[in-house]
Amino acid sequence: MTKVVVGLSGGVDSSTTAAILHNRGYEVVGLTLWLMKGKGQCCSEGMVDAAYICEQLGIPHHVVDTREVFQENILDFLVQGYSSGVTPLPCSQCNKNVKFSSMLAYARDELGIDCMATGHYARIHYDEVTQRYQLRRAVDPQKDQSYFLYDMPQAILSRCLFPLGDQLKSQTRELAAKYQLHTASKPESQDLCLADHYGSMRQFLDQYIDHQVGEIVNTEGKVLGTHNGIHQFTIGQRKGLGVAAGKPLYVVALDADNNRVIVGDRESAHKRTCTVSGVNWVSIAQPTEPIRAQVQVRYRTQPATATITPQGDRVAITFDEPQFSITPGQAAVWYDGDLLLGGGVIERPQNTTQAETNPRETAQLAGEK
Predict the structure, then answer these.
(1) What is the pLDDT of residues 32-54, one digit of tens each?
(2) Which residues contact 340 (CB under 8 A, 6 or more apart)?
(3) Active-site hit among 42, 43, 54, 94
(4) Is 94 a catalytic residue?
(5) Quick count: other Cβ atoms within 10 Å of Cβ 148?
(6) Residue 70 belongs to what domain range?
(7) What is the pTM of this model?
(8) Most buried among 81, 176, 187, 205, by the most CB within 10 A?
(9) Per the domain annotation, does 181 fall within a domain?
């Protein structure tokens, strides 16, 4: 019988994952990470529900105190990022450096288990030709979470199971009801556990970052108003700017050095190119030549066709068409269809110039002949 540790947050997805594997004959051990104090699906309420699920299934339940790891890798990471004028993506950082690494280390060192499963909606497939574990989008496009898993190294992917990746969320609810799980009718949590915990990301940041009055200026440098801190803004933001104009304004840049928020019309919030660092090539080896792929720059945005040019541990991305709200600190993740090729962190948007060549002429879609 294969042993597997299942990461249990106390939600319906992870609960159903444990039930599915238990009914498939796996020897399941539940494992919950204690990330922070207070209520919220990842914290005290979640731990209680996770323990109840384990009792229902008749499996062991372990709780690992990872509050210090979470503080360093997520809370401090967010505060530093927002203070410097970027909008960090905590979920991918948390998956790699907190959740998966902590659970696998505990499973291996304390339980002697080298396989783990979570309730993520994504799919893993081992490719015999490339001898790589490939990451693919989930069957359910509304729940696909592969974007947040772009930073997973082969060493982690090789030890993971995602049983929900091949089914719809509605089917997960049906299975939870079939297994009579305590969490079957539990409502969805917010996408970000910190929003559950603190009420909103802004409320969290206001507890950690002091207000610092600065100027809101347009793209010509004219002062339009003031703000209480650049951490309260992100690229592409329209609402809550606190300035009036004859047309809608959007945040187009954050100038941390001068504590300025720069706003402009929607067109000025579009960029065609960006540089991405901290690149992880997931399903393919790092190419030596430019490739063509579909690039997603936000979790809820549609991927857009672009040329990706490797530059050491970075890549330069040139989109066929200018993209709205390319935001430093967020992840750019590139796909060939549903196959996640790689991803990294957006460093800085760049303006389009007429001298740019048409990227369609420079490379073909990854894998095309």
Answers:
(1) 999 886 544 456 788 999 999 99
(2) 134, 135, 136, 137, 146, 149, 150, 282, 283, 333, 334
(3) 94
(4) yes
(5) 23
(6) 3-198
(7) 0.89
(8) 176
(9) yes
